[in-house]
Design a protein that fits this description.
Layout (H helix, E strand, L loop, with lengths): L8 E2 L5 E2 L25 H23 L17
């Protein structure tokens, strides 16, 4: 058995959309197996993301307690509205 790998996507209608590929070495009307692999976010990635948010909030709280703040009038300095 020979394996082929190529990217595909799921359409908004939930259908598998395959790229236009030519499998010339296969006989026409061959029976094939299709395996769909979907990348998922792992529990560890979820935990890492929550840890990152928690660290950011801790840092912001510490900076506020230490008086390391900027006047609200300066918050938008340097940010373009375009």
């Amino acid at each position: 058995m020979k394996a082929y790998e190529f990217p595909a996507k799921i359409t908004p209608e939930g259908k598998l959309e395959l790229p236009d590929v030519q499998l010339e070495d296969l006989p026409h009307n061959s029976v094939v197996r299709v395996i769909v692999l979907v990348e998922e976010q792992t529990d560890q990635e979820d935990e890492d993301e929550l840890d990152s948010v928690a660290d950011s909030l801790r840092r912001a709280l510490h900076e506020g307690k230490m008086g390391q703040t900027k006047p609200i009038s300066q918050l938008w300095d340097g940010i373009d509205g375009d």
